[in-house]
Amino acid sequence: MKKLLYVVGSPRESASESSSIANAFIKQYKETNPHAVIDELNLWEEKITPFDGNRAAAKMTFLGYGVLEGKLRTVWDEVVEITNRFTSADDYLITVPMWNGGIPWALKQYIDTVSQPELTFGFGPEGYFPLLKNKKACVVYTSGVYSPALPKSFGLDFQMSYVDWWLGIIGVTTVHNVTLLSNILTQSSLEQDRNLAIEKAVAIAKEHFSA
Ligand SMILES: Cc1cc2nc3c(=O)[nH]c(=O)nc-3n(C[C@H](O)[C@H](O)[C@H](O)COP(=O)(O)O)c2cc1C
Q: Which range marks the domain in which residue 161 is found?
């Protein structure tokens, strides 16, 4: 059965612009895929253990540093379990607010957890290569100030550029983006901009995520 993993990147609940766009996507996705399983992973409610020294040491064993045994094996098994939940999805919906030019720490921590050698990517003489196949993603980006149309003094993009790169590294190659950028500065057109973003998300769910 088809599965959508919804990774909630904003902690702002009903005030969140990205969540309201994502909710519209999900409503349409359910209509388009009535038998699909929707797995909601709220990074702010579910406690993902920080990717700490032991987890880093476990990862480094794949690069030839140390041995994966004892405590390292235990923490690695936890990482594998979290990663399996991620890789078991066919489709992804990820909400990505801009925080300080980049992405919220909880989302980065999740990315650090599921980006693992032999699970989501490999590394060889030619560099990184992806291990995921046939996955699709809809990514919702929001920012309060930043827009590519504004001068550098309004911020730079380490948000979409980073998430795009990460999805490519692991093999999620079919990616549809929805943006609602600069939403603090554009209060006068916010309602209209939001509606357009919602319309786009709904159209993506209908046209690109059909069974
Ligand atoms: C901790 C924090 C940091 C932020 N940093 C930026 C930033 O660097 N650039 C920007 O344009 N907006 C920034 N914002 C504004 C958010 O990107 C904006 O409110 C966006 O709508 C958040 O997404 P959400 O509504 O889904 O939570 C920040 C907001 C918070 C709470």
A: 3-50+76-208
